[in-house]
Amino acid sequence: MTRLRYISLILILGTLTALGPFSIDMYLPGFPAIALDLHTTAARVALSLSSFFVGISAGQLLYGPLLDRFGRKPPLYLGLALYVGASVGCLAVHSIEALIVLRFVQAIGSCAAAVAAVAMVRDLFPVQDSAKVFALLMLVVGVSPMVAPTLGGYVIAAFGWRAVFVALGGLGAVLLLATARWLPTNYVPDTALSLKPRPILTNFWAVLREPQFTTYALTGAVSFSGLFAYVSGSPLVFMDIYHVDSKVYGWIFAFLSIGLIGASQVNSQLLRRYQSEQIVFVALGCQVVTTLVLLGLTSAGVLGLGGTIALLFVFLGCLGFTSPNTSALSLAPFTRNAGSASALMGAIQMGMGALASVGVSLFNAHTALPMVAIMAVTSLLALLLLLASRQRIGAIVAAPAGALEGGLH
Q1: Which ranges does the record mark as transmembrane (predicted)?
Q2: Which of 44, 116, 291, 356 would staple 229 via disulfide (CB 3.0–4.6 Å)?
């Protein structure tokens, strides 16, 4: 594979993976405008974000078997077309209930892109390169939180919040064309795979019986759900509590995403010296400490805007180490049913994320506590899950703490 071909594959797969995050991040600065236009509250608007997470979670279970049965591209075409249609529908809504429903449909479409992209990493690249490829995809995905909220803030200020969905629909259409024209596939559809509920559930159960999958898929999902709490709660924290406007919020969100992107790229270098298992363990420990400090200082009321940004930056940096490694470790045991494994991993991750997002919305008390409490609890739970499961997946030799800490910093 030529270098140009390699880069083009990464860009297409990364953009497909980023479609869902971009759909989330770009409209976040519009929460106050949407609430005003639809005569509702910002907390109710946040439910349209929660419905998006639920749609992604449910949709991944749908597309996994379809990707294995019919190949990667046909279900991807279907999902992208559905995404474009739902984006157009969001332009015409006049109630928050309609927006919540259409965001759910939009998510069902977008998750086809994410599931197909992850499965195609397993199809197109050697298993030993998976963690590095996932890190590169995270670099592309990381552009989303840098560009999307900032761009969204300016689009909303100039044209109103509905213009965001014009841009999202256009992005979906461009991806549909790029997939048809430039994205290869070497996967041979498994025509023997039944789409009846019982065989599908049996196939998912076979995936769940793999100890390495359950260990790292659950650890990664619980850890990553803290990100969804942050995304769901950050408009309230920055725009309502710290009183920044939509444009400044976009720049803050973009700056914080540098922690996620930067760490994911440092991770690629660390993989030359350390195993993925080792990096996950140390990064989760750092994540727990960071979120507990954030929770304690927030509870005491002594943390200002600068301190909040600094600790969130470190938290996102920890996720930049854990996420690509837990994804690679989860999918490593699979070849034939990589699509189903990818879908199940994504469904677990998004399901956890939806719960975290809903939790922030339900416990909205005009403070940052619901957001940071969920981040701390999920980080601690993820570390406990990993510690409890290490013996189930065999001996994992941890590097000396001092050496790893030095590498991570």
Answers
A1: 45-64, 76-94, 100-121, 133-157, 163-183, 213-233, 248-267, 279-297, 303-322, 343-363, 369-388
A2: 356
Angstrom distance (rounded) from CA 231 to CA 186: 36
Print the SS3 string covering 25-68: HCCHHHHHHHHHHCCCCHHHHHHHHHHHHHHHHHHHHHHHHHHH
| SS3 state at 335 | coil
Give the amino acid at 336: R
Per-residue tokens: 17: 């993976």
CATH 3.10.450.50, domain 3-177+207-408, yes or no:
no
Torsion over CA: 331, 274, 392, 287 (sign): negative
pLDDT tens-digit map of 293-327? 999 999 988 888 999 999 999 999 999 898 888 88
Residue 113's pLDDT band (boundaries 50, 70, 90)?
very high
Give the pLDDT score at 408: 36
Burial 15-33 (b: 16+ CB within 10 A, else e): bbbbbbbbbbbbbbbbbbb
Q: Which of 70, 72, 68 is nearest to 116 (CA)?
A: 72
Phi-psi category of residue 4: left, alpha or beta, with phi > 0 → left and psi -120 to 50 → alpha: alpha
Asked if residue 186 lies in contact with residue 314, where contact means CB atoms within 8 angstroms, the answer is no
pLDDT in tens, 254-268: 888 888 888 877 887
| Whole-number Å distance between alpha carbons of 319 and 45 | 26
Q: Convert the pLDDT of each residue in 138-163 to its tens digit.
A: 777 767 767 888 889 899 989 999 99
